[in-house]
Design a protein that fits this description.
alpha+beta; Threonyl-tRNA Synthetase, Chain A, domain 2; BirA Bifunctional Protein, domain 2; Rossmann fold; eight-stranded mixed β-sheet; five-stranded antiparallel β-sheet; 28 strands; globular; binds zinc ion
Length: 583
Amino acid sequence: MAEKLSAEEKLARVRHSMAHVMAEAVLEMFPTAQIAIGPSIENGFYYDFELPRQLLNEDLEEITEKMKEIINSDKEFIRSEVTREEAREKFKDQKYKLELLDAIDEKEVVSLYNQGNFTDLCRGPHVNSTKELKSDSFKLMSIAGAYWRGKESNPMLTRIYGTAWTNKKDLRLYLEKLEEIEKRDHRRLGKELDLFSIHEEAGPGLVYWHPKGARIRLAIEAFWRDEHYSNGYEMVYTPHVGKSWLWETSGHLDFYKESMYPEMVMDKANYYAKPMNCPFHIMIYNNKKHSYRELPCRWAELGTVYRYEKAGALHGLLRVRGFTQDDAHLIVTPEQMDSEIETVLKFSLHMLHSFGFEDIKAYLSTKPEKSVGEVERWDAATLALKKAIEKEGLEYEVDEGGGAFYGPKIDLKIKDAVGRQWQLSTVQFDFNLPDRFDMTFVDKDGVEKRPYMIHRALLGSIERFFGVLVEHYAGAFPPWLSPEQVRVIPINDSCFEYCKELEMKLRKEKFRVSVDLSSNHFKAKIKEAQQEKIPYMIVVGNREVESKEMSVRLRTGKQENWGDYATFVSKLHNIIDTKQIEL
Ligand SMILES: [Zn+2]
Ligand SMILES: [Zn+2]
């Protein structure tokens, strides 16, 4: 009887079955190969092998051809249940399968799946026959090294990744999406647009911001500071290093040391680069006694922190070892908690919208089994978070028990232009640090009480956020973020003087502008400005010098007449001030 399968389950079966077919093809090519594991994964499948020689990209073609033959020969997937002894005999030459067999729970049945000349130790399920797989709907993607069972002390195996779909069209759409993602890769665009660099020899995971990247960062940070000021925050600045006392008190040296940069010794004391800003903000708070009248404290800092990430985990701007958090701490009385959470969530959404992110989803993480802090506080804080999300009408998911040991939190994830999700904002309660640092305030009744402390970052970190922005816009930033907003392009030398005057006038208006005085043909100048993704070009020929008309060319290639200079200036100010996303 035909089972009713969800599309997801069907794809998983297709992909896992593809892995078996690939293993059969590889064993045909290398009869002495040792086979390890071959699961279905997101978008596809892989299989790990120990091969008699290094696998080359050309080999993938041969394997692909063999797979197509197997698929087209319509072989049934046959399940059988066997005893451990039978399985041991079957896989006597396959050491990894024997190891997997040993790991199967005594109570569990041992099942095999066979198709054609290939049998695998496998729980299944699979498709019924290879004819349900489509020989035109899969592609072998890449070869990678992978340790057996992910352990570095184990042998390194050869992993072949493939993608598989139920039809040709889905495969094509997926490959197109990959191509689009590749084109948007912030590491590639960062180089092409001269935005930033990272230098292995000077320190992996540490970012160098070039002038154009710095212009964008300055625009982000200026906006960030203004918005914080008008939302009732104060700015603080704190040191980049602190003595071990600070990190012992905060607990970082007990629980977080392996993620910190190693100590520096000075005057017989150990100093550590900060992995977080929180203890520093608490030092400012604890510098004096606070009355309930002074709360809430909302203290923000673009605080640069350093964390030890494994070299293999580093990835462009998305995973680095030094980054600037758009950090703030809210220190509030229990009565203020609800409204503060509501406000901070609204603020967060406003920031994300300003950068053009509209598709936002919330994730609420609640109390895990092991936690610190009173249950009543957990309940009140979790309820405040939940109420705020619901008030904003945000779509959300609850991760029951998924919170940190020290408090519940909300994460906000945005969807980018190609549909990928990125976590940006976090609003996180902390019941741990206020205790460890003995933070108090004097309440209305004259009694010293513990305030609530909330960590929050709206963009996450400037580096990672910038990487996401680059990929979201494919480097074509909205005008308010563009490192160069206007390029003046003279058609001939006789227009140079007029163009230089125009540049100076636009600079005084605080637009980011330059003039191309090179000897290139004006069409080449336009092409270059377009490659640099400059939103507006003003093309100036004798006619424009004469008429003073502003002939504007958009980076999209569209030609527009923006009237006279004054009209141009007011129109551009409006686009930039309102943070218009489209040109
Ligand atoms: Zn299997
Ligand atoms: Zn913090």
